[in-house]
Amino acid sequence: SLQLEKRLWKMEMVPISEPKGPPVRRFVKILVVEDNTFSLNVILSMLKKIRFEVEIAKHGIEAVDRYKAGYRQATNFILILMDLQMPLMDGYEATREIRKFEKENNCKATYICGLSAQAGIETEEMCKQNGMNEYISKPISLVD
Predict the structure, then answer these.
(1) Which of 23, 44, 123, 124 is deepest in the core (most CB within 10 A)?
(2) Over 50: is that where the pLDDT of 93 sits?
(3) What is the 3-state secondary structure (H, E, C) of the chain?
(4) CA 138 → CA 19, 22, 52, 116, 142, distances in Å?
């Protein structure tokens, strides 16, 4: 089972995508991609407790745009918590777009964790097939 708090503390030191050119100081940021207000508030309250800077996207298109903007501004995300089912672009497609961008720009892959109320092996496999590193079923907590 995932221990989200421990994972986040370890990730603070994980190297993240480097733009071409001289080294740039990075900020520890997490992108939360969630269209459900209640779920978003639960996630944000947990992340606030462990003091990470958070950006929010309400759907996959916004997530991809925020990811690319972070790369261009040298403030990449160390983690993306990605809801799977959203309007406009779901989490699977958004992850594929992010992975494509990383490959095209020779970036290290950002850790992407899929989030869904649909627990099960099929959902977990779909997450992995679409480029996510991990999957957590909702509701989530800091320590399982």
Answers:
(1) 124
(2) yes
(3) CCCHHHHHHHHCCCCCCCCCCCCCCCCCEEEEECCCHHHHHHHHHHHHHCCCEEEEECCHHHHHHHHHHHHHCCCCCCEEEEECCCCCCCHHHHHHHHHHHHHHCCCCCCEEEEEECCCCHHHHHHHHHCCCCEEEECCCCCCC
(4) 34, 40, 20, 6, 12
pLDDT, tens only, 52-75: 788 999 999 999 999 999 887 766
Where on the phi/psi map is residue 123: left (φ > 0), alpha (ψ -120 to 50), or beta? Answer: alpha
